[in-house]
Specification:
Number of helices: 12
Largest sheet: 5 strands, antiparallel
CATH superfamily of the largest domain: nmb1532 protein domain like
Oligomer: single chain
Strand content: 5-15%
Helix content: 40-55%
Strand order of the largest sheet: 4-3-7-6-5
Number of strands: 7
Low-confidence stretches: 23-37
Mean pLDDT: 87
Order of helices and strands: HHHHHHHHHEEHEEHEEEH
CATH topology of the largest domain: Four Helix Bundle (Hemerythrin (Met), subunit A)
Length: about 350
C-alpha cells in the first residue's frame, strides 16, 4: 500500500495471503513478499497480555475462541445440509466483535502509529463478512447457491480469526502503550457482550476515568471539549425545546434553535422558580413530577399533547449524577408530527 497499490487490490489478496501463510512456519514460507508483510507481527508474544485478566486483548481472544467453536459447529451442520438458525444468530454476534475492532483498534493504529494496512484492508473484509451473513440470514430460500455462499463467508470468518491472532493482535501488542489499553478497556464497556464472553475486570483500569486537560477558552467535559460558541450552536441545533431546572426548582437554561416554540420561554424566566412559569391548573402536576424525581420514585414522565394541530411529545426527565444524586429536571418538547405523517404514508 505504501508503494501506491490500491487498498482494494490488497484486500483481494488478503484472504489468499492468509491462506498461504496459515499453518506454515516461518521456515516454510518461501515468498519474500509474504514474509515482509508479516515481519511486523513476527516474534511478538501476545500471550503475556492475553493472560492478564480483563485485558482487552484477553477479551478479544476469548471471543475468537468461542467464535471458532460456533463456526466449526455451524460448518459441520451445513455439511449435513442442516441450517441451524439459532447457531447462525450466535455466529452473527461477530458483528459486535468487529465493531469493537473498527472503533477501538483500527483507527488507533492508523492515526497514532501510522499503520494503515491492517486498518484499511481488514476493516473492509469485516464489513463484507458481516453484510454477507446478514444477507444470507434474511434469505429463507436455502438452495445450492445459498449453501455455497454461506460456506464461503464462514470460511472468510475463520480466516479473519487467524489474521487477528497472528497479524492484528501482535501489531497492536507491539505498538500500543499501557495507556492505550486502558482507554480501550474503558471505551469497550459501552459495547454489548457477544459470543458468550463476559468481560472480566481489568484491575489496572477498573477505577480509572479518562479526563481531558483544561484548554484555554474551551469548556472541558468528560466526553470532550467545546468552545462556548460551538456548545451554544450544538444545543441550538438539536431539534428539541430543552429546559433545565436545577435541584432547587430554579429555571437555569433554555435552548434557542431559532424555530417557533410550541411553549414560549421568555429569558426573563431564567433564575425564577419553575412553578411560576405554569398556569395554576398545570402547577400541581409539575410539582408532583419533580417531587417524584427527588424521591427517586420515577426517572421519566412522558406526556402527549396536541398543540397548534400538531402531535407533541413532552418529556420530563430526572437529571442525576453517577451516584444517582438528583441535580435537577430536564424538560424536552419534540414535534412528532413528522412521525405520524411517515407512518400514515406507509399505511
Amino acid at each position: 500500500m505504501e508503494s501506491g497499490v490500491p487498498y482494494q487490490e490488497v484486500q483481494k489478496l488478503c484472504d489468499v495471503h492468509s491462506a498461504l501463510f496459515h499453518g506454515l512456519t516461518s521456515g516454510e514460507v518461501e515468498s519474500d513478499e509474504i514474509a515482509n508483510t508479516m515481519s511486523m507481527a513476527e516474534g511478538v508474544d501476545t500471550n503475556k497480555l492475553i493472560e492478564i485478566e480483563g485485558h482487552p486483548l484477553s477479551t478479544f481472544t476469548r471471543e475468537n475462541r468461542n467464535l471458532e467453536k460456533y463456526l466449526k459447529e455451524f460448518s459441520e451442520k451445513l455439511d449435513k445440509n442442516d441450517v441451524d438458525r439459532e447457531l447462525l444468530s450466535k455466529v452473527r454476534e461477530l458483528s459486535t466483535h468487529y465493531a469493537k475492532k473498527g472503533d477501538l483498534l483500527y483507527p488507533l493504529l492508523k492515526t497514532k502509529y501510522d499503520i494503515s494496512g491492517p486498518s484499511t484492508v481488514m476493516w473492509s473484509v469485516d464489513d463484507e463478512i458481516r453484510d454477507e451473513l446478514s444477507r444470507l440470514a434474511a434469505d429463507n430460500n436455502v438452495d445450492e447457491k445459498w449453501m455455497a455462499d454461506m460456506k464461503a463467508v464462514i470460511s472468510r470468518a475463520k480466516e479473519m480469526i487467524y489474521k487477528e491472532d497472528n497479524i492484528l493482535f501482535p501489531i497492536c501488542a507491539l505498538n500500543f502503550t499501557g495507556e492505550d489499553w486502558i482507554n480501550i478497556y474503558i471505551d469497550s464497556k459501552g459495547y454489548e457482550k457477544c459470543l458468550d464472553v463476559i468481560p472480566e475486570k481489568f484491575d489496572s483500569a477498573e477505577h480509572l476515568t479518562r479526563e481531558f486537560d483544561d484548554i484555554d477558552g474551551e469548556i472541558v467535559l468528560p466526553g470532550g471539549h467545546f468552545t462556548k460558541e460551538q456548545l451554544i450552536a450544538l444545543l441550538d441545533t438539536i431539534p428539541l425545546e430543552i429546559t433545565f431546572v436545577d435541584g432547587n426548582d430554579i429555571n437555569r437554561f433554555f435552548n434557542d434553535n431559532g424555530l417557533p416554540k410550541a411553549f414560549k420561554r421568555p429569558l426573563m424566566a431564567i433564575d425564577r422558580d419553575v412553578y411560576s412559569c405554569h398556569p395554576p391548573k398545570i402547577e400541581p402536576m409539575v410539582r408532583e413530577i419533580i417531587t417524584m424525581f427527588k424521591k427517586g420514585i420515577q426517572d421519566e414522565v412522558a406526556i402527549w399533547v396536541k398543540k397548534n394541530g400538531k402531535d407533541m411529545l413532552v418529556k420530563y426527565m430526572a437529571v442525576r449524577d453517577k451516584n444517582k444524586k438528583y441535580l435537577g429536571t430536564m424538560e424536552i418538547v419534540q414535534d412528532m408530527d413528522f412521525a405520524r405523517k411517515h407512518f400514515e404514508e406507509e399505511e
